[in-house]
């Protein structure tokens, strides 16, 4: 294994999200979120798991910050639970919620770890779902009030802000496939939800800039390189459509303020394009300081007129993670160089990359997660090659700092570089985390 070395100022991080780790789901006046509601309904989450307790991070954050520090992590990406701040989504502010995040931020800074905040990582206040959730444009305005409050409370110390995590997942899995909260199955509504999320992103960026806080703000998209299954023209066109919905829809919107024409036509022809006032993007569009990229796997696509947008994903015969996702580091290189080519010189961060494997704590009390180490090594190597090819990649956040509640999959899928025993809440540093520590030390020397 050749030893990797990144540029000296490269930001090495790890990431988590509030609902996946915090627990304390109704403590200190926190309001109900759509994930509280969704996970408590039998059938929605594997084994009826939920985030009621999760990693109990709400009570153990100090210990967790010490763990981050011991690994030499430079930056920690976490999200804020909107219903802790506004239990009803708007109106009355819950000071106890603010205090928790203030303490966490102070603890991080005290330990030389840069906080990077995701404002929305899927846990919408249930009260806002009751008025239509993201399908209701009013929710976008409540979001801006919420974001504004966070800027004002924490903006003096927090210099990296991510407005949204993966609008594709929040809208498509939540509103079209119904496998995530709020569990709706209506593609037109999903497009509407995605649109309002994007609008709320621009409005929050504008609000942030008006405060002149001297930090950076951007959005995180889940992106996945789409390859054609064959040299056949129809398959190539199918891969392009897949790229259109998975990547270009959100990349074009976030970075150019437009939707791709070919996809608008497909959605209009199939009657799933919602009515959207045309000038909306042009009026509210704001550039981002950076783009956050979550990359896990690629897609190989073939034409199938029966499938959604006529594109079917083909399973490849390569090694896969516990999620069933093909391991394909070349896809990360292709993605980074392509975004740089097609979307200009914007700073890029990998805000999530990592793998679920079936880890065990062995008799010596160790977790020898060679498979994850290998996954991370090959993906970091791909990222380094992209930097060498001229891509302005500034940082990399491993998903995840610790094992946690993997949404519809519950606790069975472990993504952490730190193992969590959910019975005792004991944390065990995995071998991959020690590898990361060394990489950080070597690069920052
Ligand atoms: C991403 C999510 C993150 C985590 C990983 C595995 O889609 O942003 O919360 O669940 O997948």
Automatic annotation (TrEMBL):
**Keyword Hydrolase among record annotations:** yes
Q: Which InterPro entries match?
A: GH, GH_1_N_CS, Glyco_hydro_1, Glyco_hydro_1_AS, Glyco_hydro_1_beta-glucosidase
Q: Residues in the active site?
A: 166, 352
Query: Which residues are recorded as binding substrate?
Result: 20, 121, 165, 296, 399, 406-407
Report the record's Gene Ontology biological process terms.
cellulose catabolic process
Give the UniProt family note: Belongs to the glycosyl hydrolase 1 family.
Q: What is this protein called?
A: Beta-glucosidase
Q: Which organism is it from?
A: Clostridium cellulovorans (strain ATCC 35296 / DSM 3052 / OCM 3 / 743B)
Q: From which lineage does this chain's organism come?
A: Bacteria, Bacillati, Bacillota, Clostridia, Eubacteriales
